[in-house]
Each structure stands twice: as C-alpha cells, then as structure tokens.
Hints:
Order of helices and strands of chain A: HHHHHHHHHHHHHH
CATH architecture of chain A: Orthogonal Bundle
Order of helices and strands of chain B: EEEHEEHEHHHHEHEHEEHHEE
Number of helices of chain A: 14
CATH architecture of the largest domain in chain B: 3-Layer(aba) Sandwich
CATH class of the largest domain in chain B: Alpha Beta
CATH superfamily of chain A: ABC transporter involved in vitamin B12 uptake, BtuC
Strand content of chain B: 25-35%
Strand content of chain A: under 5%
Structural class of chain A: mainly alpha
Oligomer: heterodimer
Radius of gyration of chain B: 18 Å
CATH topology of chain A: ABC transporter involved in vitamin B12 uptake, BtuC
Number of helices of chain B: 10
Helix content of chain A: over 70%
Number of strands of chain B: 12
Shape of chain B: globular
Structural class of chain B: alpha/beta
Strand order of the largest sheet of chain B: 6-7-8-3-9-10
Number of domains of chain B: 2
Amino acid sequence: MKPIGVGVVIVLAFLILLSLAxxxxxxxxxxxxxxxxxxxxxxxxxxSDAERTILWRLRLPRILAACLIGSYLAAxxxxxQGLFRNVLAEPFVIGASSGAALGVTLAIIFGMQATILGLGxxxxxxxLGALAVVAVVLLIGSSLxxxxxxxxxxxxxxxxxxxxxxxxxxxxxxxxxGGVILSWTMGxxxxxxxxxxxxxxxxxxxxxxxxxxxxxALDAYSLGDITSQSLGLDVTWFRWLLxxxxxxxxxxxxxxxGVIGFVxxxxxxxxxxxxxxxxxxxxxxxxLLGAALLLxxxxxxxxxxxPAELPVGIVTAxxxxxxxxxxxxxxxxxxxxxxxxx
Amino acid sequence: xxxxxxxxxxxxxxxxxxxxxxxxxxxKPGQLTVLLGGNGxxxxxxxxxxxxxxxxxxxxxxxxxxxxxxxxxxxxxxxIALLPQFEAPANQLSVREVVALGRVPQRGxxxxxxxxxxxxVDEALRATGLDGVQHRGAGTLSGGQRRRIGxxxxxxxxxxxxxxxxxTSGLDLQHQHEALKQVRGLVGQRAxxxxxxxxxxxxxxxxxxxxxxxxxxxxxxDGTPHEVLTVTNIRSAFxxxxxxxxxxxxxxxxxxxxxx
Lengths: 342, 260
C-alpha cells in the first residue's frame, strides 16, 4: 500500500501518454513518420498541404479531445467510486449518459440546427440531457427522508432505464434516423472540433477544480458516514458537491464524444495500484491513465479497419468488459463492495 | 474546559417508540464515564446525540453556552472525537493515512500536515501498537487491529471530549486494557471528558470514575462504580444474577455471574 514515488509514476504516465500522442499523430489512413512532421515544424517545406491538414486540422484536435475526454471520464470515475465506496462504480452509474443520449436523440429527430455559443445542437442537448437527469436524481435523492448513496444509485438506475426506453422508442418511431443515433450512442471522437473542445473545457474544468478541492474529504468519506461526520464533514452537502463536480466532467465528456464506457471504471483502479488510495494522488494519475487509455483505444478504432473507422466506444467496451470482470473477481476477493451505509 | 451537559434529552426516530427518555447528565472534564446497558438500551444513540450526529426530539445537549444543534460539524469535530461502533474498512488507504485523517478537524480539508501533526500521528500509532504496520493497507488488518486504527484516529484528533462506542470490542485482553489505560491517561493528564460504552462490567469497574446504566432508554443508575454496580442494578439492566465482591487487588467491585 505504501505508494512508490508518486512523482515518478506521474512522469512515467505522462511519457506513455506523450508517446501515444506521437504515434496517434503519425498513424491513420496515411502514415506520416514522426521524423518527417518533427522536421517540418522546423522546416515548413517537407510536408504537403494535404499532410499538414491531416496532421494539424484532423488528428491533433482528435488527440486533444481523447486526452481531455479520457481525463474527464477518469476523474468522474474517481468521484463516483468514492461516492459509492465501490470500485465498480463509473461516471455513468447515476444516469448522465442516458440523459445525454436522450438529449441527442431529440436533437437528431427534431432536426435541430441552431448553434449556441458556437456549440452544435447535439452537443448542447447532450449537455442539457446529462445535467437534467442528474438534477432529477438529486431531487429524488434529497426528497427522501434519509438520503443515502444507495437511494441515489437506485434513483439513477430508474431514471437511466426510463431514458433508455424513451431513446429506444424514439428510434423505432423514426427508423430513418436510427443509424445516426446509434452511432452517437456508441461513442466517437471523429467529430471533435475546436469549438466543442473549448466548450468541454469550460464545462468540465470547474468540476475538475472542485474535485481536487474535495480530495481529502473523499479520503475521510471512505471511512463511512458516521466517522466522516465526526471528522467535521457535512456528508449531505459533500455528496451534492461531489455529484455536481463529477457530473460536470461527465457531461462535458459525453457532449463531445458520446457514450464511452469503461474508461472511468478502469483508469482509477489502475491508478490506485500505483499510488495507493489517497485521492489527491489517485485523481491526477487516473486522469493521465484515462487520457492514455482513450487515446490508445481511438488509435485502434481508426486504424484496425482503415480506411473504415470503428466507434471508439466499441473498442473500450471490448477491452473494458474483460477488465470489468477481472475487477469484479479481484474486488470480491478483497471484499470491497462498498459499505452501503447511509 | 467547557461543561458538557445533557439536559432532559429524549429521542425517537419519526413514528417510532422512544429510544431514549428524559436523560440528564452533567459530564465533567477529567472524568471517565462508562455507559452500560443491555443491547438496545440506547448507549449508541446517546453517544450519537452527544456528538451532534442526531438531534434530540426533546431537550438539548449543551457544550459550554452553546447547544450542539447550533454548532457546525467542523466546530463540533474540533472539540469532540467520536469512535463509532462500526467503521468502513477503508481498504484503499494505509493505516497511517487513516490515522492522519484525525488531524483534519485541526488542519482543515486542504494543505499538507505539519511536523507537529506528524508527531501527533506517530504518537497515536505508538500508543495503539500500530507503528509496525503503519504502511499496510488498513483493510488488510484483523478486526481488532482495525479497531485500534479507529482509536488511534480518535487520539490524533486531540479533542477535549472523547466519545468511544465499544472501543474494546474485538480486542484481545492485553489491548482491551491498553486501550482503556490510554483513555484513562488522557483523562488524568489532559482533563479530557471521556464517555465510553462498554459491555464488560469488570472493565467498567476498573477504569470508570462514573458509571451510567441505561435500561430501555431510561437512566437506571448513575454514580461511582461502587454505588452503581450492585446486584439489584445489574439484575434490572441485564436480567442476570451476579455476586459483587471487592476486587482482591484494586479498589473496585468485582462482578461474578452466577450460572442458573
């Protein structure tokens, strides 16, 4: 449990991320060797205009999107796993993804074309859908006589199921647009554009800063409600703040890239293996690993069947499902299923 | 040290029968009070009321001139340490990290611990015999060792009032006495107000300045161990026959159960 040098781990994770970014920038339908584009940065005559467009207009925004979304999903995972005191929780457990999916479905079906603050209607609707569902879950949770993490989880499951049923119903009624909706709900970084990234930064960063501020409180919260209250934590307020912060990160990720599962589940778990359980250490390492995981998954998604492209959500699901089962088995052995007290 | 007073407190969960009725206690600094009573007598509820985690249905708990109900969690935590009966195992944190969380009420939620904080943590780890396992995962230790982690964290809080809910449960004989000696020492040296719930009447007799017996939510007896630990009171609270004799070594009653 004694963490090996946290700084060393973070530097290593950053170097892995950087290496993946270099490979991602070079690989794709056209291979542009790193030495060529590195030289081109110093000498602008080496690459053709088409190659420069591919590198800096198509691949770079996508790499930045993968890093941003991966780190948001990982941060959301750290927060929700802390909230539910369960390593099997993930950002979508409270229903943010299904709310976003419903928002996007409505935008596509009703052919919304308007842009708000430079954001496309699907992005705005994804954001609104995610936040609306989280707000409803919070309202249900807060109206209960004894709000608990379990009641929040159940409220999230119920609202998620409702949203999923509505999406399925809308897809069946509007079959000509069903394919578009389905591809969005699979998750993809193909449509990453700078305006979307800026919006994701604006929405997600406040959530991220709030999470950093809540790290030590998360450590105390892991000891149970009664103990954390005896250490001065107002558990009710803390839960709302944590859910709000995590939802901002999740909603920002979903609004850009759709529904991408498992990154928020796996990255925090990997992070804890390297740096121990203190959240102030787990959060940054998980964000770096989340960014690296999503970048690697996106690299596979756009090269494995090139020139065709797979939705990145399929890649994360194929890799994540066995990883989830492994987590389930190992956490059963450790007996850490979340204490379930309120 | 501020007076800590339980003023005619009753408590019931909404719609349920009362758990505590009309409890009056004046808890003094430098005094170790042991709460005794059968299962469901109201000991844990009383400790949670004293810590401000539950609010009385009737009456109030006063710390100095302030009602606990009006104080913030942080303000309460800086003065009252509570060791709950059950605690999540915190598998993800090391023993030292869990114990260091006891410094939060003094240091706040942000910023690194000072040298002084680390010294307090070291001292609590030594006092509870956990210094050898301080870097191990808290969840990998035995139940008794985990109980000592909770006790160490409560000591680290350096509060003027300590509320300990069955601190000796799961501990072996040596550590039961070590834990209570530790509390006894704080009561003597730093005039801490300690309220400890126990099930072992002989431990209560040896370590308590004052014994309070609860019976079905009511205060059955309150006084020194000699005054309270009588055959009649024990039969009323626990429905068991005992013989009470003078302890051969210490100035305390010795309670011997009589098998029927």
